[in-house]
Fold each of these.
Amino acid sequence: MRGWGRSLGGVVLLGACACGGTPPDEGVDAACAVLLPGDLVFTEYLNDPVGTDTGQEYVELHNPTRAAVDLHGLTLYAARVDGSQERAYLFTGPVPLAAGSYLVLGDVREGPLPAHVDHAYGEALGALGNTGGKLGVRCGERVVDEVQLTAPAKSGVARVYDGQLVPDSAGNDDPERWCDGSGAEDAAPGRGSPGVANAPCDSAEPSSPATEDAGVVESCVPVGATTARPVVWPRPGDLVITELMANPRGDDTLGEWVEVLASAPVDLNGLTVGSDSAGTKVEGRVCRSLAAGAHAVLARREDAVLNGGLPPPVATFGVDLRNSGGVVMVRAGDVLVDAAVYGLAEEGVATQVSAPLADAKRNDSQEAWCRATEVYGTRGNLGTPGRANRVCSGGADGGVPDAGVPDGGRPDAGAPDAGSVDAGTPANGCIDRSTGKTRAPRAPDGGSLVLTELMADPSAVADATGEWVEVLALRDVDLNGVTLSNEGGSSTVLTATLCLSLKAGGRAILARSEDVSVNGGLPAVLGTFSFNLANSAGNRMLRLSVDGRLLDAVTWTTAAVPGVSSQVDPSRSDSTRNDLAGSFCPAPTGARYGLGDRGTPGVENRPCVP
């Protein structure tokens, strides 16, 4: 990485380009047109330095390919989680990055570059979000990689992608694969490893294996005591989401909050609070305990001056709550304790569950929720944070059908996996992840879904947990109701409460397991299937269908190569040309994911070499 020079230079993109408008000119696009999604990967960032952020922040890019790449023509950008307030920086000259190397880009405004920075983007990005946001690099409108920013445990600690995993642009979408950097407390510029490979994330702090009958994990010190005791995690239904504020008056990143109600004595230590795509773990050595019947507020900020006059929050979280609607979730390790779907957020008004319906079963129904009416705090916001809600009028009377959000709350919920068969699927459709409302699934038709890659014989993990299939959408569709089957007639129907949505150009991974600890380090899995993919030669087939109508099918006769996926050439990524002889080939040696098997799950395939 060192040796090719370090530089200041580039262009600050404001106005149309900074707001996601027109791409750079044709000459600049041509300069980076050879770069595909995944050819550059974010592996580290320092978004909350000690003291002032200005001049100290940095981001690290890795080249996972077998050839040198050049950043000329690319745009580095940062924005809020919803994509608003984007700021960007254009690479106007050559910035080479050798194969397998790392490049550190720094917020250096003046003077010489620090030893750990290779290239400065100056003031172009402004300050990165300390508790959340979006960081990406693109060529024109083609996104090469993008990650969600998360908060470190304290200032001066970089966030790093798990060093035990091969860096890939789909895997780094998962916030659980990032951790705080290691190193000396007084290390400059902070605890991290800019410019070199990351260390493995601390294996001494894995997700706690909470069980259905216990939930006792980790340890904490009760208030006023000196001796630690085991943490008591809530079981599904023991902790209920009862109110949330997604669109407060003023800055959302300061005033958002979520209220929970304990139906049994529990500790919040170690729980993860967030959305369906990101979460923040509740940290702390002192027990954050709730008695049965007690409310707790989880907020973006603790300071009442900043958060709009909330009662003292029990903990803070760093995930943006979408104003357009979404899902709030509380997890204990891999166990979903409760989830609540909400719709379009009204400015300055919390949405709350009707007091008689405040349990993990009945809060699944959209009819159980209503707008708050009481004023709290200093900004005229409406809500009852930390105390009992009002009784909603109208339909929130407990007699409505259950919308079926898979929150683990007593017998109504199916498996909380958003992928395999879920008993809670609404009869008339699925719940849209963006709006929080039930709608009819967008059924795919012939040619709208394409089988583009499959891993039949993983080497890093067992076949029973590591096999997977990739599906490309050529238009906006939902996979709810789609059937994946093989040559032997074994099949799995994809069913879920939430809409299994794919936008045009998006790729879904269907896998034997969604558990990253056993599936070889796959990026996010949209659905799971239960049958095996044959390793030996023979007449093999994979088939996608819906309601008996064929969507796509691929056949092959050769044996699987251990640890290597079979992928379609990107020039043949449609349901007709992927049937042609020679359309599929082994993934190249430079394309690796997770624990090191070859493949490009979730990102564009590499061209087949004749």
Amino acid sequence: MNESPTQYYFGLLRQTVKLQLLFLGLLSLFRLLFFWQFSPAKVSFPAQELTEAFFLGLRIDLVLVCYLSALPLLLIILNHLARSIVPLPWLRRLFRGYFTLTYLIVSALVGIDFGFYSYFGEHITIMLFGFFDDDTWALVQIGLKNYNVTLIIGLVLFYAVALVWLVGRFFRDVRPTGAAAGPLSAAAVYLILLLLVGVGARGSLGLFPLLKDIPEVSTDVFVNAIPRSGVFAFEKALKQYLKDKNGGYDLIKRSGYKGNVPQAFRDYLGREQINTADLVSNLRRTTPNNSAAAAKPPHVVVVMVESFGAPILQYQSPDFDILRRLKKHFDEDILFTDFISGANGTIASMEPFLLNVVARPGSIAYGQSRYQGTAFPQAAARVYKAAGYETNFVYGGDLSWRNVGTFFKRQGFDRVEGKSDIEALYPGAEEHDYGVYDRYTYDFVLHKLEQAEKPQFVYILTTNNHPPYILSKSYDSKPLQFTEALQAHITGDMELAHRRLQDYQYALDMAGRFMDGVKASDLGERTVVAITADNNTIEGIMHYDNPPQEGKQVPFYLYLPPYLKAEPFDRNVSASHNDLFPTLYGRTLSNTAYIAVGEDLYDPAALHCGYNDAGVIVSAGGAFKTGHAANAQQRACEQKYNAALAVTEYLVRQAYKAAKPVWEKGSE
């Protein structure tokens, strides 16, 4: 070899830069594919906003490419200084292996992000790791049924082979540069490259790096999603997951109350005078005297319908009869409409809901964390149990799912029953991937109520309206005709949307059938029923005109038997999951103490706000994202939400501390 090592290194750098620019272009093509796949067909966006979104996306991709360039550049510099301790041909092979591996990983994360967005309507979050904590095999089966897996695998293999070939071609034969360079020239080139990579990885010449706070380019949620990177979304989610798993999650600090928890209680309660010696006592409330409920305690049933988002109900019509038998009950009884879910996954919503707290953003499930053995004293079921009720947790699936069977036995439920208990009563119960069909779950509860000799509190979690969206063979579905207005707001596969909404219809119809059964018997005279949902996951295929207002919206339906005093109520009061039980306690229990991070929706003196852990807040002043409060009402609700997060974390830690063995408590 007549060329100097410097010429070879420069040749290797030249090939690296060419390859990285090509990969940068490929990432831009992925972003175009994202736009094509998920943008609503009949919605147009301002050209300037789209231009800014794609340019911002290019900058974010450049950050990633510079991160990937840093290690090879440092390797060349160090090897040059060490007088080629790694032989030059080996260096070429190292580069080929490095870029092949990193490009495949990046591509895989982009693909996973596509799949995640298609279901949840957002880039990767900590919920991704629920794939491993969930019934993983069931999720795999869902994928096999919902998607053309053969085609997908074929395309992935073709892409992977093409990518390996492309990288190999760039590093198969590195030609040294023609011009020789002395030590000073080489040092200058390396310094310039280090500066360029450093600035590129920072993404900004301003005070803060680009990734610290990615700017929004539009008021539209989808347009703001275009520049986001699935790779960096995964990195953020992984950090959150590992921090929570390792006990490093600090919501009190995150919400701005580190070292000042009493102030969080003051801000949440809206008063300065509190008991600082016993902070939890400040949350203790007592329901008003209710002579009717005291004389005749009603059964109380709370139903959490899987993925029952409320925005789709605006399209309800004879030709799009999504509600079926539930419609008349929604028309006849109490329905709170400005109500949102606490979180955006089933377990993420259900656990804080039943623990009477707000959802903790970026945390993992209580039942699969260090809190799995903790008995939370403020849990919703304990309030009814203390009032003389028999308490029941009924789930249409396996109780091993997310450890719900074990965890909720510790939260005040006398009975925790699942699919096997339902099938014992109904041996021919029809099953799907996640459990028995909802009809059998509701029949199981009706039977329980009819046979009860004492007041029952029953929580129901249904399983339908969930992938793979396969209808019961015995169900007579009603065709759903999509209006132009609905089609204009649906993104993605229209055939899958049809199948999804047919299962949606089944789930709501079965809830309506359950209400028919309650009202048609004497249970209607002594049973209170609340119906809500865990989340609005259909937002993943919907484009909303007002995303903060509609994206997290779920119903809160309430049926009260005639003997319980009807009170004036505001159907438009802003609220979320954490307000449901305080509202129920006030209608069903007399002079009963409870603790909850929530409000009774019938209380006109309370500041009513709804909170979702994605940072969405609904208020009388409108819905908004945290950090974007625009009026006094919104600012008051945002302060209360931050305080509620800190108060929730304090309750969780106190319960955990009380549950630890004596010899471990000193470590806190």
